[in-house]
Design brief:
The structure is a single chain. By secondary structure, this protein is α/β, with parallel strands linked by helices. The protein has a single domain, classed as Rossmann fold (3-Layer(aba) Sandwich), CATH 3.40.50. The chain contains 6 helices and 5 strands; from the N terminus they run E-H-H-E-H-E-H-E-H-E-H. Strands 2-1-3-4-5 form a 5-stranded parallel beta sheet, sandwiched between helices. Helix 5 links the parallel strand 4 and strand 5. It is globular. Bound molecules: 1,3,4-trihydroxy-5-OXO-cyclohexanecarboxylic acid. The site of 1,3,4-trihydroxy-5-OXO-cyclohexanecarboxylic acid has 10 residues, from loops. The site of 1,3,4-trihydroxy-5-OXO-cyclohexanecarboxylic acid (DQA) has 10 residues, from loops.
């Protein structure tokens, strides 16, 4: 099984960025922990991060015919990128939306996700475990 992990804008700044909200792990450290889980689940993972909406859309398109699932943290694009939503919808690949922080208990503008409706699940507020649960969810879905 092939799963693409996509991280959106400002997530390359993890470790430095608002550690009280996002924790002290860097994106590389988070990806290493996700990779360990991938080995345990016997799945192949690819990691991608971009600060640019179009690059994220291109990466989602690139998954078509190649990946069985997508785990995406769209960062702030979560709250307004209809274009990323449409890309996920277009490829039809089972996608889980994840967030490190609990977007439902922060500012009102973070409570709305335009991405959620085209995803099979949204997991937030669990730090790196949001990603790990997302992998487990996709793998379990294929077992059924
Ligand atoms: C985030 C939450 C978003 O609201 C924010 O813009 C981010 C990170 C999270 O992982 O908690 O960049 O997606």
């Amino acid at each position: 099984m092939q799963i693409q992990v996509i991280n959106g804008p400002n997530l390359n700044m993890l470790g430095i960025r608002e550690p009280d909200i996002y924790g002290t792990l860097t994106l590389n450290e988070i990806n290493e922990l996700i990779a360990l889980k991938g080995e345990e689940l016997n799945i192949t993972l690819d990691f991608y991060q971009s600060n640019h909406e179009g690059n994220i859309i291109d990466k989602v398109h690139d998954c078509y015919g190649k990946k069985d699932g997508i785990v995406i943290n769209p960062g702030a694009f979560t709250h307004y990128s209809i274009a990323i939503r449409d890309a996920i919808s277009a490829v039809g690949i089972p996608t889980v939306e994840v967030h490190l922080s609990d977007i439902n208990s922060r500012e009102d503008f973070r409570k709305k996700s335009v991405i959620k409706g085209v995803c099979i699940k949204q997991i937030c507020g669990k730090g790196v475990y949001s990603y790990i649960e997302a992998l487990e969810f996709i793998v379990n879905m294929f077992k059924k």
